[in-house]
Amino acid sequence: MSLFDQFANEYPPPVAAPVVLEPAYPAVRTQGGNPVFQLDRVQIPFAVVNLVCVAVANSLLAMAVEGHATGGAARDPAAPRVQRIFRILLTQGDAIEEIELQPRQKGDRIRRLFLDPTARHMLISTEAGDNYYLFDRWQKPRPLSKMRGVIVESIAWGKPRSGSADPSTGVILIGSRQGHIYEAELQPTDEFFKREERYFKQVYSAVGDNMPICGLRYERFPAVPRKYIVIAATPNRLNQFIGTVSDAGGDGGIFGDLFRTHENYYGA
């Protein structure tokens, strides 16, 4: 036995203590001890084929599905595909509504669904730039003619007008693929000659950028009633606009003055 072997037998190497690996993020929990985020499976009682997109708000799941019509056309690959929207109340698994969208243009397809925080208002955007509005009491989406040609990428939902009994969306901001920001308000109506768009107007354009507005949000300053902040995100930039808005009266919009003060700054 060599001197090194004798030393190894008399003094064995120390056993390394186990290393406890911490996650890269803290386990955020509420005051009651429940996790802030929880992942669960949604039980859908039918097979989902060709899922296009989903949107979730206020325990409501909206799901756009593309498929062939039933009957003989289902066997014909060249037959037009049917655009369907399912509204599923997550608190009641059997509360499912199926709604069929008939696009204005032949062959057009749904690309995005947008739900407001109350899940009462849904905006449906298609690949051809047509947009449709679906109120929670309706079974058929209605086209938004003033928004034709606008490929919607994001929506900043607002609050309904204070003191008003009508179920409108309130003031909303819409970001487009072309880099424009629009202001609008949608109001469900049963009158045949009345449009759902109370108003729709462009309030800003990302001059020189030409990047889609992929994220949009606005909030009011608590201590200053007419002071707002708007956050607009593009794929390579995050922008904020702070300013005073017009009075929220009439149908002319309120955000024009706020964006006008930033015209020479944005996109420079």
From TrEMBL:
GO biological process, one term: vesicle docking involved in exocytosis
Name of protein: Pep3/Vps18 beta-propeller domain-containing protein
GO CC, alphabetical: endosome; HOPS complex
Coiled coil (UniProt feature): none
Organism: Blyttiomyces helicus
UniProt key word Flavoprotein: no
Keyword Coiled coil: no
Pfam families: Pep3_Vps18
